[in-house]
Structures are given as C-alpha cells and as structure tokens.
C-alpha cells in the first residue's frame, strides 16, 4: 500500500461535451432540454454518446439537464467505487441517490455535495489518513470498450456512405 501525499488531493470534475447556456435571469424551472446532445450534432445512435445515459435523455420530452448531469456523475462514482460498499455503505448510498431512475428523486449538485461533506465530517482525522481498500477502477472491460468503439465506427461509416450516396444522387439529378 502506498502512502498518501502530504498535501490534500483535489479533483476537478468538468464537462467537455455539448453545453447549453441559459440566461442567468431565466427561471430554473424553464431550463430544459430535449433528447440526447449527440443526436443534435449529426450522430444517430445513443451508443455513440460514449457514456452512461440518464433515462430521461432517451425520451422525447423536455428534461432538466442538471439532473442528467447528476445521474452521469453518480454513475461514474458508483461504477468506480461500488466494490467499497461493504466498507462505506453510506457513501455508496449517496451515489445510488444520484442514479435514481426518476430525476425528481435525485439530489441537486449542492445537495449531493452537502451529503458528501456530512459523510466526510463523520470521520476523525486519523480515519481519513488510514488505508482505503483498493477499488476496481475498470468499470467496463476492455473488450467491451473495443466492441463499442468498433460499432460506433461502423455506424459513422454507414452515415458517411449514406451522405455520399445522397450527394451523388443529388449531383446526378442536377446534371440530367
């Protein structure tokens, strides 16, 4: 087991995908989106998204993108740390609340963070400096990642072929 660094570790979790900006003065209840961001950008299959999809993102109904973000973050944490459930059941319970099927049952980011802080505050300094069991850091087997990548590439090639055929058909109609 390795020793932890002297200085506290700080993690920053950010989202580099397709973002939407809502006016600051907009009503939070009106900050809604529909569907999956990747489908608005030329892709045609949810598997091309490359990450877990919140259930509401697959519906053709407006939903709160922030609750979808909570689902994805909770899924990431749960996938990485679920094997620690016997050692840290209350922490895993927070992650489970973040991946509730019903978005209205998920905490907000502030609520989830508050729960993690409260959980953290329940430990002594000595406990926090103690060893942590090694988590399973491979939530998706490599073979499955390769398979999904291959399938996404095949769908992309099919899209490009369809686009090329449409362009050729358009060109032949124009030249006739």
TrEMBL record:
Region span, Disordered: 147-176
Gene3D superfamilies linked to this entry: Transferase(Phosphotransferase) domain 1
SUPFAM superfamilies given in the database record: Protein kinase-like (PK-like) (SSF56112)
Biased composition (Basic and acidic residues): 148-168
InterPro entries: Kinase-like_dom_sf
Name under which the protein is recorded: Protein kinase domain-containing protein
């Amino acid at each position: 087991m390795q020793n932890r660094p002297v200085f506290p570790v700080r993690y920053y979790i950010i989202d580099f995908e397709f973002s939407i900006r809502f006016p600051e003065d907009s009503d939070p209840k009106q900050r809604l989106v529909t569907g999956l961001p990747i489908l608005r950008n030329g892709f045609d299959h949810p598997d091309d998204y490359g990450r877990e999809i919140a259930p509401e993102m697959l519906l053709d109904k407006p939903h709160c993108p922030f609750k979808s973000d909570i689902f994805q973050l909770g899924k990431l944490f749960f996938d990485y740390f679920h094997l620690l459930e016997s050692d840290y059941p209350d922490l895993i319970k927070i992650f489970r609340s973040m991946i509730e099927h019903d978005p209205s049952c998920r905490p907000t980011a502030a609520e989830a963070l508050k729960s993690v802080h409260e959980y953290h505050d329940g430990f002594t300094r000595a406990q926090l400096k103690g060893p942590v069991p090694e988590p399973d850091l491979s939530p998706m087997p490599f073979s499955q990642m390769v398979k999904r990548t291959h399938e996404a590439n095949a769908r992309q090639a099919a899209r490009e072929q369809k686009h090329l055929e449409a362009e050729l058909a358009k060109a032949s109609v124009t030249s006739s």
